[in-house]
TrEMBL record, chain A:
Matching CDD domains: TM_PBP2
Family, as annotated: Belongs to the binding-protein-dependent transport system permease family.
Biological source species: Actinacidiphila rubida
ABC transmembrane type-1 domain: residues covered: 108-317
Domain of life: Bacteria
InterPro entries: BPD_transp_1_N, MetI-like, MetI-like_sf
Coiled-coil residue spans: none
Cited Pfam families: BPD_transp_1, BPD_transp_1_N
Protein name: Peptide/nickel transport system permease protein
Residue ranges of the TM segments: 9-30, 112-132, 144-168, 188-207, 243-269, 296-320
Subcellular location: Cell membrane
UniProtKB/TrEMBL annotation, chain B:
ABC transporter domain boundaries: 20-270
InterPro entries: AAA+_ATPase, ABC_Ni/Peptide_Import, ABC_transporter-like_ATP-bd, ABC_transporter-like_CS, Oligopep_ABC_C, P-loop_NTPase
Membrane topology: Peripheral membrane protein
GO CC annotation, single: plasma membrane
Keyword Membrane: yes
Protein location: Cell membrane
Origin: domain of life: Bacteria
The family this protein is said to belong to: Belongs to the ABC transporter superfamily.
GO MF annotations, alphabetized: ATP binding; ATP hydrolysis activity
Name recorded for this polypeptide: Peptide/nickel transport system ATP-binding protein
Coiled-coil zones: none
Amino acid sequence: MFRFLTRRVLGAIVILFLITAVTYFLFFVLPSDPAQLACGKNCSNKDLVSAIHHRMGLDQPVYQQYFDYIRGIFFGRNMPDGQNCAAPCFGFSFANDQPIWPLISDRYPTTFSLAVGGSAAFLVIGVGLGMLSAWQQGKTFDRVASSISLLGNSVQIYFIGPLAIALFADNLGWLDHGHDPTWTSDPIGSLNGLVLPCLVMSVIFWSNYSRQTRSLMVEQMAEDHIRTARAKGMGSKYVFYRYALRGAAASIITIFGIDLGSVFGGAIITEATFGLHGLGNLAVNAVFSLDLPLEMAVMIFSASAIVIFNIVVDAAYALIDPRIRLA
Amino acid sequence: MTTLTKPEAQPTPQGSEHFLSVRDLYVQFATEDGTVKAVDGLSFDLDRGKTLGIVGESGSGKSVTNLAILGLHNPRNTTIAGEIMLDGQELTGASERTLEKLRGKKMAMVFQDSLTALSPYYTVGRQIAEPYMKHTGASKKEAKARAVEMLGRVGIPHPQSRVDDYPHQFSGGMRQRAMIAMALVCDPELVIADEPTTALDVTVQAQILDLLKDLQQETGTSIILITHDLGVIANTADDVVVMYAGRAVERGTVRDILKTPEHPYAWGLLGSIPRLSADVNVPLAPIPGSPPSLLNPPPGCPFHPRCAFAETVGGDRCRTERPQLPDGRGSACHLTVDQKRDIFIEQIQPRLR
Ligand SMILES: Nc1ncnc2c1ncn2[C@@H]1O[C@H](COP(=O)(O)OP(=O)(O)OP(=O)(O)O)[C@@H](O)[C@H]1O
Ligand code: SF4
Ligand SMILES: [Mg+2]
């Protein structure tokens, strides 16, 4: 387990290095001059631009800039103009000269809550449907469930989102409209505000997870070790949950790991649909206001989050499969 | 006390009742291509404390027969007919609940490939302890102690610590021992070993077979030993059933089958026993041809497309008339008793040495 995780963490560090480097240099080679952007539209004074260049460190060689940037994230730094930027420092926004980290830390709880809550919802619903279908293989439920989940496959969040709000929040009044969570001050209210967005977000994942779970369970039930367990006199329900599900779980987790990117994407679309203020909204604003440091920070932050969640998923996989845990 | 003993085995009542009696067993699978007649009118008996060897090529229906005894076929696509009497209890058509109580307790199975037949997700100890808890109501602790004891019994060194290992941490031979421990944990009266040694190398094979024999001596359990290798049953079985295309084609004591086999198919099997003493450069002589389709079995004797002696029988009897297997010692072949004896002595035996 330890060796497995060490290997994964080392791999993740390499990936994070690549992500930050590529992102940084991508932005660096963009045709627009950041100093010009930071200075504003009517900034034609050469001296002013070069002063800004110096202030932003743009007169340094690019690797030095990158190094300073990374150092800032971990330890904070003093900008060339003497302005202090506390760790984690992603620089200052072009748009309003504010440090960037507080902008992100203000927003990510919404996105993370959606990603986690949405995942929980589609794992419970999708995997649950798949298991029931496998158990009822070939019977009516199996067919109905596969049609329902197919339906889920063909809808879009921004289409069912408003419908769900109109139905469950406005008309029936069963669920909250959905609002940004404030976990520390109002945990219950935060939870309530997430139920509808998370459910809506989960719909697009149902079909994949129920189909995969069904076929994994059916596959598992045909395994030799299942037959052995039954030959020992273990009941079919017991074998289904203890043996088949255990085997399927490992594969489901792998699929989930691959899907992490789409999960974040789903969370961002859900944010927009429900008018929540998360990272997606922040990134869109950054793009429109040509706020390069903010865009870069959001990109690096989200990519890192996915890489880190991937390690968590890997660890969960290793916990389930002793052949990996003990390797 | 938790020793490997078993309640006094009742002696089989004179003549009539056998411990296990399979009569006219048919097992058919509904598939997309049609009905697979995997077992086609099979009968055999097994007495307490005895070992029955079932031999036959791959696909002859050995596993299907024994899975039917345990009731492990999927009822959705399987039709089973005939009679399976275990200790006076009818098993065909018995409810799943009844069978669940018997499996692992009264009858147990040792499977061939211990790597796939054990779950990779649970410790060996847990997998052994599980049926013990289920069938005896033992606590977790007692069951684990029993698992340790069983592992020691089947010759696993340091059972106290190995009990917490996962199957992939065991060698192939050790896994097979663990599987035997698992099958024997509730002192079953019938153990079905389905090619328990096929995946193992020759020395380990011999050890596993010895282990089974020793355990049988101690507990008086009956064993069905399935194999496609007559060599395996030579030192292990009392009686032998030779299966071909889902039917028994010859039946006798192990001595009968090895010394005076009657069926041309059995002669073929005998010819393919690997001998440790044999020159490695002399290839085994497998039976020419391949097993018949179970979807459309050939009419008459199912072996006739591969049989060198159909001409000796004469006419097209072999192609049209299904030879019957007599009760007791005998073979399902149209050759006369004298022909069988003469051909074996004159043509087959000289080639076996
Ligand atoms: N569930 C099933 N559905 C359809 N056909 C099956 C099924 N199980 C077994 N068969 C067929 O029944 C025949 C007998 O199979 P069985 O497993 O009993 O052979 P075997 O004698 O045990 O062979 P081996 O030595 O290879 O284990 C084979 O032709 C197999 O393809
Ligand atoms: S009945 Fe005919 S074909 Fe069948 S084994 Fe005997 S001789 Fe060969
Ligand atoms: Mg088999």
